Amino acid sequence: MKALISDIHSNLEALQAVLADIARHSVEAIYCLGDVIGYGPNPRECLDQIMRYPVVLLGNHDQAVLFDPMNFNPVAERATMWTRAQLDRPIPNRAAADARWEFLAERPLKHREGDFLFVHGSPRNPLNEYIFPEDIYSEPKMRSIFAQVPRYMFQGHTHIPGIFTEALEFYSPDEIDWEYQLDGRKTLCNVGSVGQPRDADWRAAYVLLDGTTIRFRRVEYDVETTIRKIREIDELDDFLADRLRSGR
Ligand SMILES: [Fe+2]
Questions:
Q1: How many angstroms separate the alpha carbon of residue 128 from the centre of ligand 1?
Q2: For residue 40, what pLDDT is reported?
Q3: Is residue 68 pLDDT above 90, yes or no?
Q4: What are the chain's domains?
Q5: 198, 130 in Cβ contact below 8 A?
Q6: Rounded distance from Cα 81 to ligand 1 centre (Å)
Q7: Of 8, 70, 90, 197, which is most buried with the most CB atoms under 10 A?
Q8: CA pair distance 43, 83, nearest whole angstrom
Q9: What is the pLDDT confidence band of residue 71, given thresholds at 50, 70 and 90?
Q10: What is the pLDDT of residues 166-184, one digit of tens each?
């Protein structure tokens, strides 16, 4: 069984809670679909944890910290610059800081295993394209995306978990009793966000994948600690803290 996590966004409390939940299942490998950093207060700690996993994709926020933010709003851009400064700090030493930068710079955009494709955003624009639930009404967009999917695709980026079928239906996890059986037809699965959920549920989201069975998980974490940390950092807007409590 694999655990698929995404969009941690430097939220260490959420990451630790998800890892504790993963430890209660027989998970052999953890894959991360990008955006380890950006927005939150613990970029170094989150990266140090995620660097141990066999598949870690580049997200648009990871890329923005590496290079320069493009088309980011002022709040996200300021958080990006603060994150970059944190990664430049030689904690606990210069070699550790260099290893984090090197790790980020080497991240792939996609990972494929037979019928399974893993991306951050979408197959045609892995870093930046969003696939939102309402995109089921954009048939040309969805047809073009499905055409590039081998059979099954797992993604993050929108922070909204759920299943997209080739019949252009979207199911949120609670609509399918938190479980979905892949059945040979092309399917997309958004695994949700560990550190900044945006589906009106504040709990950390991730997915367990056992063969062709998807299980959506939600995990409570110490959100008030994360909120307090963000509020104490001037460069991280209070909005980034407050939205964690409502999951929006
Ligand atoms: Fe993200």
A1: 10
A2: 98
A3: no
A4: 2-246 (3.60.21.10)
A5: no
A6: 16
A7: 8
A8: 7
A9: confident
A10: 999 999 999 999 999 999 9
